[in-house]
Structure formats: C-alpha cells, structure tokens
Amino acid sequence: MVEPLLELRNVHATADESVILRGVDLKVYPGEVHALMGPNGAGKSTLASVVMGHPGYRVTDGQVLLSGQDITTLPPDERARRGVFLAFQYPEAIGGVSVIQFLRQAIVARKGLTELSVLEVRLELAEWMDRLGMDPAFAERHLNEGFSGGERKRNEVLQMALLEPVIALLDETDSGLDIDALRVVARGVRTVREQHPDMGALVVTHYVKLLEEIEPDRVHVLVDGRIVHSGGVELAASIEVDGYDAWRTLVR
Ligand code: ADP
Ligand code: MG
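Above: inputs. Below: predicted complex with adenosine-5'-diphosphate.
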C-alpha cells in the first residue's frame, strides 16, 4: 500500500486563543499536486504554517504525518530536515548573504551533510538555473535584497529544486504578484516535478490561471477552517465563475 507523503488527520489549530482550523483531513500521495483555495481568512496560510510547525500556531487536536510518521510536535527545523519545505511569501532580505551561500547552507542542513563545496553547489545551481531559464548572475546577488516579485518566486523555486523536499508547500498569498511571477511558479513546479516525480506539493492560490498551468491532481476548498469540498481542476474553474458563496452558506 502506498503511504501518503503528507497526511492531516482531523487537525484543529489555534493562534492567540482564536480557533482557525476546525478539523482538516488531507492526504497527499507521492507525485501528487494539490491546490488549496478559499476566501481570505479561511485558514489557508495557517494550514501551511501548521504543517511547517510555525510556533505561532497550536495544534489542539489531530495529527500531522509525514510519510506515516507523526511530526505534530516536531520543531520546524527538524521538519525541514525531514523534507517539509515551505516557500515564504515575503522572505526577509538577508544582507551580505548571496543566493548561492544561502542555498549551500540550506542543502547542508536538509541533507545532513558535514561539508559541501561551493563548486558542487555552483554546478547544480547552474544546471537548475539553466532549466528554469534564469540568468546565472542571480546566484551572486544578495538574498532578497531588492528582488522583484518574479525574482522572489524564482528564488523559491530554486530552493525547492535544490532541497528536494518530500512535500513542498507554496503559499501564494497572491497580492502584489503579476501574472509573470505566477507563471514562474507554475513552470517551476512543473520543471521540478519532471526531475523529482515523487515530490508532493500543496499550492495555495486564488488564481485559476496558475492552477490551469500547474494541473493539480486535486483541488480543495477551505472555508472557515474546514475543507468543504474537494474535486478536480474543474472545481477551480467553477469557483472563478461562482465564487465561494455556495460553500459559505453550507458552513453557517
Ligand atoms: P488565509 O490564508 O486563508 O487568508 P489565514 O490562515 O491567514 O487565512 O488566517 C485565518 C484566520 O486566522 C484569520 O481570521 C486571521 O486573522 C487569523 N489569524 C491568522 N494568524 C493569526 C495569528 N497569528 N493570531 C491570531 N489570529 C490569526
Ligand atoms: Mg493566506
């Protein structure tokens, strides 16, 4: 029997005393891409944060499992080491650290290496930048300093490619991203999947255009902390036409 890479079992979560997730069940199997949609404030970012182990959120009931192992109480760095990857929407600029230096440290931590030469990283990075159609000069730039929306997305995709996560969480909070930046994500996910076909991904987005390009296996609608509906990519198209109202009334 194939085990899910990521499984949420009846997950309830709170932040600052307020209840946000109210019993979420989700299974992502190897090679699957799932999309998570839902109105603002539904709890989509909370769900991603809970899977990553963000200390600002408390799981009050249920479990998060990674390849069958309960990770509900593990700290975020341990989850990252085991292959949970969360792309930050608004990553901090880190002065004086280049993209390549950052990636080297991240790969060392993820793969449990004691040493990894700059040359090795440079070679793999060059290969990926070529696949993703990126300018090689990008590797030498300082992390997130003055990055455009598209460049931040490229940086996320590069991290995802090089860290070879078991499950990648992409929270496209959407605001301020132009369609080109979204395309970077869609193309990036496709390219990384070609190289790592077993990777699972959970993509949070409002944009049906993005989903059409990513071609998710499942689409889930989260309303008021619960998954109220799951279906194929046609669900995204119907949401574009009808919005979330039908499900809002279901919850009330
Ligand atoms: P979404 O990503 O679907 O827009 P969020 O997960 O960001 O939704 O937020 C869901 C709800 O939880 C919102 O009402 C938000 O205000 C609240 N919330 C999120 N994070 C916190 C927090 N750290 N403390 C208190 N409330 C929070
Ligand atoms: Mg959000």
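The domain at 6-251 is CATH 3.40.50.300 (Rossmann fold).
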